[in-house]
Specification:
Pfam families: Polyketide_cyc2 (PF10604). The chain is an alpha+beta fold. It has one domain: Alpha-D-Glucose-1,6-Bisphosphate, Chain A, domain 4, CATH 3.30.530.20. It contains 4 helices and 7 strands, in the order αβαββββββαα. Strands 1-7-6-5-4-3-2 form a 7-stranded antiparallel β-sheet, with helices on one face. β5 and β6 form a beta hairpin.
């Protein structure tokens, strides 16, 4: 991997005071994602789209009113989920959002949030991709922690 490619993968990690299954349930339910989106990009997602495996597609509406289809490309219940977004009805644009959970003990979990745009092939999305920094990922982690730690 070249240095240029390395800058196209950003991540942030936070230890949360909640068990992995509790946190994963919130991440895997797209209807709950807008509440803890640190990019302030997600407006809503219909209920009933809880993700259960690779190959599923869930749909979200963004704050600019556009619709995103999100193809699930990695899934391990309670531990890892990743999806590739695309414009409605189009193939994925080549970027990926990933969540990885590592249970520390029965009440604490290390959560890593990664944004990977190393395969992005839609030039119109590059500027937005560059603006997705570890700080923005940390904002999502902090909002997620506030959500799951209050349960």
């Amino acid at each position: 991997m070249t240095a240029t490619e390395e800058t196209k993968v950003v991540s942030a990690t936070l230890e949360m005071a909640a068990p992995a299954p509790t946190i994963f349930e919130v991440i895997a339910d797209p209807s709950r994602q807008p509440a803890w989106d640190g990019n302030d990009n997600l407006a809503e997602a219909a209920p009933g789209q809880r993700v259960h495996g690779v190959g599923e597609i869930f749909r979200t509406r963004l704050t600019n009113d556009s619709i995103r289809d999100n193809l699930v490309v990695e899934f391990e219940e309670g531990r890892r989920i990743a999806w590739c977004p695309s414009n409605e009805g189009q193939p994925p644009a080549g970027h990926l959002w990933r969540w990885e959970l590592e249970q520390v003990d029965e009440s604490r979990t290390l959560v890593t949030h990664t944004y990977d745009w190393s395969q992005l092939h839609d030039a119109k999305r590059v500027e937005r991709a560059r603006s997705t920094t570890p700080d923005k990922l940390s904002a999502s982690l902090e909002k997620l922690a506030a959500t799951v730690e209050s349960v």
